[in-house]
Write a structure and sequence with these properties.
By secondary structure, the chain is of the alpha/beta class. It has eight helices and ten strands. It has a six-stranded mixed beta sheet with strand order 6-7-8-3-9-10, with helices on both faces. It has a four-stranded antiparallel beta sheet with strand order 2-1-4-5, covered by helices on one side. The termini are far apart. The structure holds adenosine-5'-triphosphate and magnesium ion (MG).
């Protein structure tokens, strides 16, 4: 028997950066072990929604909670992994190795002197192993392919044994083969390791095949669908008009 336990709750959340409201009275709940895909057109507030869930933005009204705690009072940030949009562009020129990048996320656990002990080293090795990047530990981050970098960012979150990982368009610029590997990795994190996943993506067709739930953002609202019964073609028609065809493509 699976016991439901809440990971994220949004209650009557309304938000806009200025006088334009982007989200109005949004309600939804993510339970432990679910895999959510967040879809919607450019500028529909997908990234904004993640930032609200993470407490990086404050709703104008309503509440966001993590594990039942209002996000403003939440302190167990080690349990949360977040890979922001365009993280790879930002890090490309950074002169750190894969191992250094992954280790750096352990800093909050390292104590006053910031030394890595055997336990920390093992965590880093394990994380790189899970994402299949242990052979690249000494490589500079800028010398990896886009798909490989994405795996390193996932390893970086894994050193803290997160309970939930938020990813904002992790697959932009990643080819079909690497996408396939990425989804295999997601399945491992989700099904075997029990990590709840929240992923923003534009690839509606693929997302609906891989996730358990779909949240469609647009026109101030958020519509939640069970991924099993979600019809991507109908959804695209509803936002882009009748002539839209679903295209499976690499970015
Ligand atoms: N810091 C900000 N200040 C003011 N407006 C903002 C800010 N960040 C985003 N916006 C605006 O809010 C709207 C939603 O932005 P958001 O980044 O959440 O969209 P998105 O759905 O993630 O889009 P994309 O698919 O392009 O990533 C956009 O119109 C954007 O221009
Ligand atoms: Mg975005």
């Amino acid at each position: 028997m699976t016991v439901l336990s809440e990971v994220i709750t949004l209650h009557n959340v309304t938000f806009g950066y200025d006088e334009i409201t982007l989200l109005r009275d949004v309600n939804f709940q993510v339970q432990h072990g679910e895999f959510w895909g967040i879809v919607g057109p450019n500028g529909s507030a997908k990234s904004t929604l993640l930032k609200l869930m993470l407490g990086l933005l404050k709703p104008q009204s309503g509440t966001c909670s993590l594990f039942g705690t209002p996000v403003g009072e939440f302190r167990k940030w080690d349990q949360i992994g977040y890979i922001p949009q365009n993280v790879r562009e930002f890090n490309m020129g950074f002169p750190a190795t894969v191992k250094e990048m992954v280790s750096a996320n352990l800093i909050s656990q390292m104590g006053a002197f910031k030394w890595m002990n055997a336990h920390h080293r093992k965590k880093v090795e394990e994380a790189l192993h899970i994402v299949g990047m242990e052979a690249y530990a000494a490589r500079r981050i800028g010398q990896l392919s886009g798909g490989q970098q994405q795996r390193v960012f996932i390893a970086r979150t894994l050193v803290n044994s997160p309970k939930v990982i938020f990813m904002d368009e992790p697959l932009v610029g990643v080819d079909v083969e690497s996408q396939e590997k990425f989804y295999e990795l997601m399945e491992k994190l989700n099904r075997q390791m029990g990590i709840t996943l929240i992923m923003v993506s534009h690839d509606i067709g693929v997302v609906s095949e891989r996730t358990s739930h779909i949240a469609c953002v647009g026109k101030e609202k958020l519509f939640v669908h069970d991924a099993n019964t979600f019809n991507p073609e109908e959804y695209l028609e509803s936002i882009y008009g009748e002539k839209t065809r679903l295209v499976h493509h690499a970015h």
